[in-house]
Amino acid sequence: MIRPTILFAVLVAGVLGVAVPAHAQGSGSATLDAVRARGQLVCGIAGAVPGFSLPDSQGVMRGLDADSCRTVAAAVLGDATKIRFVPLTTTNRFTALQSGEVDLLVRSTTWTLGREANLGLLFAGVNYYDGTSFLVKKALGVKSAKELDGATICVQPGTSTELAISDYFRINAMKFTPILIQDLSEIQQAFLSGRCDAYSTDGSALATFRATQPNKDDFVLLPEVISKEPLGYVVRKGDDKWFDIVRWTYFVQLIAEE
Fold first, then answer.
1. What is the C-alpha end-to-end distance of the chain, expressed in Å?
2. 14 and 125 belong to one structural domain
3. Any idea what the CATH number is for the domain that residue 28 is in?
4. Which residues form the signal peptide (predicted)?
5. Looking at the structure, do residues 11 and 108 belong to the same domain, yes or no?
6. Alpha-carbon distance values, 222 to 6, 25, 50, 145 (Å)
7. pLDDT tens for residues 230-244?
8. Contacts of 72 (CB under 8 A, 6+ apart)
9. Residues 213, 188 within the same domain
10. Cβ atoms within 10 Å of 152's Cβ, excluding its own
């Protein structure tokens, strides 16, 4: 039986006028026409974050972001399997979307005014509300983020996390030294090896990382959540019909969960 989310997505596609044969042209959306021409949606994801996008033992991409991409594929192509996932980093995700390498970005990306105003991109909806947090080793003896004055903190560059940490330490008259590492596995290994005192990113990612450690009780997720991070779908600005398709497909997912 077709899952409710996929079924609703196909119905929405009909209402928006996009559920037509793949050979049809002139939809009014350059992105939609490109997706139809290749018969496949290309979606940018992280590809290494449990719960959001991570291959299972069979190589099938699983998680909230991956399923969000599949729903859009179902809406525009009538088949949730007609999709190619492209793992992207925090630094190349926006250029990949801007250049047309991917049709859609669903990669734990925070919706901000600056990104919409300066990058030529639009956010079509929020699929998860997160917040910047800190993970430390229990042996450090720290129980609050306000005890991290002078600490070294591992963080990925080009992220809203990096900005949130700077604001938090400035507001609280504290200092820190950022250890900027792009690759996810490398930054996690740097934290485990003791290269930094704390590891900071979205709280959901830190909780998952801690839970997957064999000695998880040796790590403490500090109680402070120092920012609001609405994560969502991102498309190129200027393709209004594609924006409408992605936005209303997102609404469909909300309705299907009721």
1. 18
2. yes
3. 3.40.190.10
4. 1-24
5. yes
6. 38, 53, 20, 6
7. 999 999 999 999 999
8. 9, 41, 43, 104, 233, 245, 246, 249
9. yes
10. 16
DSSP 131-171: -EEEEEEGGG---SGGG-TTEEEEE-TTSHHHHHHHHHHHH
User: What is the three-class DSSP state of 19?
Assistant: coil
DSSP secondary structure of 59-99: S-EESHHHHHHHHHHHHHHS-TT-EEEEE--TTTHHHHHHH
Q: Are residues 109 and 140 in the same domain?
A: no
Opening angle at CA 43, ends 40 and 44, nearest 5: 155
Domain that holds residue 105: 4-129+230-256
Which residue's entry shows tokens 């050979």? 23
Looking at the structure, do residues 95 and 193 belong to the same domain, yes or no? no
Question: What CA–CA distance (Å, rounded) separates 110 from 84?
Answer: 22
- CA–CA dist 158, 92 (Å, integer): 9
**pLDDT number for residue 20:** 47
- Quick one: how many helices (H) and strands (E) in the chain? 9, 12
Residues 43 and 69 in one domain: yes
User: The whole model's pTM is what?
Assistant: 0.84
**Number of domains the chain is built from:** 2
Could you report the per-residue pLDDT of 168-180, keeping only the tens digit for each?
Answer: 999 999 999 999 9
Report the C-alpha gap between 199 and 196 in whole angstroms: 7
Cα 111 to Cα 160: distance, rounded to the nearest angstrom: 9
